[in-house]
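Tokens as discussed.
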């Protein structure tokens, strides 16, 4: 079972005192970074964009509110999130 909100790359952080030294009296803690869902969406979007004939400049044109590219960019982002969600759903199925 995978949780979409779990960290994709958890790292144990050691607490440090005000001088930057490891504090042996404090407990280590987990630093999360990107969630699995965010990571899966990012790599899905990377794949989508790598298979597209448009350039980065074409996507940047979508920054204006009146631009038709803005809706295309949002659709690409939504598609990447949908793919990430589908992957998490499939990973959670019992084989």
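Sequence:
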């Amino acid at each position: 079972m995978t949780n979409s909100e779990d960290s994709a790359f958890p790292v144990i952080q050691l607490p440090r005192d005000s001088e930057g030294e490891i504090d042996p009296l404090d407990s280590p803690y987990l630093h999360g970074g990107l969630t699995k869902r965010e990571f899966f969406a990012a790599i899905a979007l990377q794949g989508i964009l790598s298979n597209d004939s448009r350039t980065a400049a074409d996507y940047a044109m979508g920054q204006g509110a009146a631009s038709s590219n803005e809706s295309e960019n949002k659709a690409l982002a939504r598609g990447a999130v949908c793919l990430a969600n589908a992957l998490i759903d499939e990973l959670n199925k019992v084989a």
